[in-house]
Amino acid sequence: MGLWEHASESVAAMLLLLLCLNETAHVNSQRVPALFVFGDSLVEVGNNNFLNTLARANFFPYGIDFDRGATGRFSNGRSLIDFIGEFLGISSPPPFADPSTNGSRILNGVNYASAAGGILDESGRNYGDRFSMNQQIQNFQNTLNQYRTMTNPTSMNQFLAKSIAVVVTGNNDYLNNYLMPGLYRSSFNYSAQQFGNLLVNNFGQQILALHSLGLRKFFLAGIGPLGCIPNIRATGFAPVGRCVDLVNQIVGFFNEGLRSMVEQLNRDHPDSIFAYANTYHVLGDILNNPARYQFDVVDRACCGVGRNRGQLSCLPLQFPCLNRKQTVFWDAFHPTESAIYVFAWRAFNGPQDDAYPINIKQMALI
């Protein structure tokens, strides 16, 4: 898919992109040995296939445009991590919960992300089992025990320091906690500002725990405009064709706090680098300027049921829309592969408005 309006600009930009990727793959395959992935369904690659949960995507039509089919990725095709791995020239790491994730399979890292999991342990419990961020950190420690049997401490420390941790979380703390007053008390106990602060404080402790275990490069994603996803649009709390602005304002407190946290972490830990991915800005740009990215459907899902195809998410064997490359949202909660690609490209190459203070490509070269 093109990223610019004019064909000539698009061709030139894509050629430049290919040159950058070839160079990056050559350089970074040496510099970035592994990816460690933490978070939720936006970066999951199949952990929940092995859990007792309703939050699964290991059935058709998920993966309809992926050469490996329905793997547990909450997308019609590749995930954010697949693209970032491609840009870095390393394999997308396997899911931690897969029994075969051991030995040589963990040499490029491990993916711990779990759909419905959040920063707070209770978030997402309405779906059943999931790995919260705290559990994912424990799972990472399990992996470190495996590495210790494979290499010496000095080599392991160098390996971890050169690797990149990608963390995409917080979404379920809103969608499956704060914005569910019928099941969770958090919206009664905390104002939006207080809840945002609670999440950021807990998240900060989790990132410091990962830092204490040896990771030194962190790419931390903010939350996108949740008020614009099909599931929230389907609530009917906004005029037709409009996002639910109140929800977008609520997640803004978390994003502001996370960016400030990244600045503080960089001051406190000069041996490390922490970057903030401005998910809200990038996805907001796609939604506000869809034609620039060759999208023409921004307000409803490609696969789902009810208003905006967002009241129920994609069902087994449901036939999805045919114009998936022109549609921003795949199901009630998740972007299509085409929209994910735009975010991945900008996370990797973008200016400080997209990734602050540096992008993933710059991080890889440190």
How does this model look, in words?
- This protein is α/β, with parallel strands linked by helices and 366 residues long.
- Helices cover 41% and strands 10% of the residues.
- The protein has helices at 7-31, 80-88, 133-148, 153-162, 171-178, 186-189, 192-212, 230-233, 245-268, 279-288, 337-349, 360-364; strands spanning 35-39, 109-111, 164-168, 217-221, 273-277, 297-301, 304-305, 312-313, 327-329, 355-356.
- The protein is globular.
- The model is unreliable at 1-29 (pLDDT under 50).
Keyphrases for this structure?
alpha/beta; disordered N terminus; GDSL esterase/lipase; lipid degradation; two-stranded parallel ribbon; hydrolase activity, acting on ester bonds; 10 strands; six-stranded mixed sheet; secreted; globular; 12 helices; GDSL_esterase/lipase; 366 residues; 41% helix
Summarize the structure.
Its main location: secreted. With 366 residues, this protein is an alpha/beta fold. It has 12 helices and 10 strands.
